[in-house]
Hints:
288 residues; alpha/beta; two-stranded antiparallel sheet; 10 strands
Amino acid sequence: xxxxxxxxxxxxxxxxxxxxxxxxxxxxxxxxxxxxxxxxxxxxxxxxxxxxxxxxxxxxxxxxxxxxxxxxxxxxxxxxxxxxxxxxxxxxxxxxxxxxxxxxxxxxxxxxxxxxxxxxxxxxxxxxxxxxxxxxxxxxxxxxxxxxxxxxxxxxxxxxxxxxxxxxxxxxxxxxxxxxxxxxxxxxxxxxxxxxxxxxxxxxxxxxxxxxxxxxxxxxxxxxxxxxxxxxxxxxxxxxxxxxxxxxxxxxxxxxxxxxxxxxxxxxxxxxxxxxxxxxxxxxxxxx
Length: 288
């Protein structure tokens, strides 16, 4: 009988513990959504000369103006690469726009051919996107942020230099500041460069390589003096974290968050951590 009572008591404690854990999980989920808002997602095409830039705009349904963040995908990527981030930031009160670079991907919905794409055509695309969003009535023009990943990170740094007085801040995921160096090592002279090259499934034209052959990134960045957040994995075998470490020294106000064990493109858990770090950064630099 004593043994039976002990078993009943132990079972009761177990049930109580399970109930407490479930309650804690519910509370944690409530905490995560407590400050979120409903959003709408609209397709938005932006003109850039003879080209059209396709993207999706994530907007909080609350009335008034909102801070905004523009997200630029990496090599052979699309706007969908940052759909989760856009939704997350919009739910916390930020307008978010992710788009396809012209000729930037086999799956791009923007116009243009990949064989015409260069770092500088993408720079032009991002500038056009920035100008368009900054003219929107519901965008707080004093709180407009740039966000770029990989090649989109490189492009973002170049645009930030050009419109520094209009940009509130910049976020970079594993920025590919290595691209000119890498291709210069592959093709030491311009005579070595082929007319076309299929690289990682995307056809590139000769201009992609010639445009950056004598271009040294760190000679062209560093004057942007707003706060910068860089997030990079220490196991990235595509873009060495050395480049982000050098960027932190080059910029006046840059912070590098290193994600242990993460590569080029974060894991699910790494991606969540990165999104949360970015949201913290945005909140610290806006009145949200």
